[in-house]
Every structure is written in structure tokens, then in C-alpha cells.
Inverse folding.
């Protein structure tokens, strides 16, 4: 009887061990699906990331002038993004910030949730909504509960990355 119990215990232990290995491999595979260029640049197509925070003139685009109704999230501090780079958000634009590949602004940071926050550009400013992230979103030194309107000059901290909001 004791041998049968020990044999059953071995199978349970192996099952739990294989389940653990499977979950670790699945997590690693999910993190590796983020293309290196997207993760390094912090973009995936909707918000426009620019290296020069003052203006941008890409193919078919005109330079962004002051007062054009475009908001910018300028990187003030970040271990993963270039300081001074900007994500331009025209009025009506919605971007998702997080670690997941489907986010428009990808932050490869352990303190950032997969879908951490949503930013919507409105005429009055940027509306920042925390999406129930584990570590929260901080606007102007205060943690966001729900959504908050962020004006020109205020800061948004998500994980180790700090953005400054600018009106263009």
C-alpha cells in the first residue's frame, strides 16, 4: 500500500512540475512575441513616435506646428525609451500603453501591466485612464483612480517611464 501511495505521489509531483514548466515557457513565448524594433522604439503604428520632440516631418507629413490640436507624450525619464522622444496624439486619437504587443506604446518594464493605461486626446487635454494595473498610473504625483484629464506641462508616470504632456 505504501509503494502505491509513493507511486501516486511521484505522478502528482511530475504533473505539477510539467505544468510549471509549461506556464514558464508560455510566459516567455508571450514576451518574445514583441518584435525587438517595436519594443525598442516603443511604437506599433498608431501614435507617431518621433526622436525630435519639437517637430516631425515624415513621408507625406508636414511638420507639427504649435497650436495644431496635437498633443505629445514626451519621454522625460525611461530605462527603455529615448529621453526626449515624443508620441504625437491628434485630437480623437486613442492609444493603449502597456507591455503587450497589441499596445500602441509598448513599455518593456516589469512594473507595467500588459494593458496598463489608455490615453485619449481631447481638445482640452489628454484623458488618462488606468485599466486596473497592478502598480497604478501616477499623474502629477497622485495615483489615478478611474480617468483624469491631464493638461499641458503635467507628468504621467507608468512604471519606470515618465512622460510630460505637451500641446503642439
Amino acid at each position: 500500500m505504501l509503494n502505491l501511495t509513493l507511486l501516486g505521489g511521484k505522478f502528482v509531483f511530475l504533473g505539477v512540475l510539467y505544468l510549471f514548466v509549461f506556464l514558464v515557457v508560455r510566459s516567455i513565448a508571450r514576451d518574445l512575441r514583441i518584435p525587438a524594433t517595436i519594443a525598442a522604439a516603443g511604437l506599433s503604428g498608431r501614435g507617431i513616435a518621433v526622436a525630435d520632440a519639437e517637430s516631425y516631418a515624415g513621408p507625406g507629413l508636414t511638420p507639427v506646428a504649435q497650436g495644431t490640436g496635437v498633443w505629445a507624450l514626451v519621454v522625460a525619464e525611461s530605462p527603455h525609451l529615448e529621453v526626449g522622444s515624443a508620441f504625437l496624439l491628434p485630437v480623437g486619437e486613442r492609444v493603449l500603453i502597456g507591455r503587450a504587443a497589441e499596445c500602441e506604446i509598448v513599455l518593456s518594464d516589469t512594473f507595467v501591466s500588459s494593458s496598463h493605461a489608455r490615453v485619449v486626446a481631447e481638445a482640452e487635454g489628454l484623458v488618462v485612464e488606468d485599466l486596473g494595473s497592478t502598480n497604478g498610473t501616477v499623474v502629477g504625483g497622485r495615483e489615478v483612480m478611474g480617468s483624469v484629464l491631464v493638461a499641458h506641462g503635467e507628468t504621467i508616470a507608468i512604471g519606470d517611464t515618465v512622460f510630460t504632456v505637451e500641446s503642439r
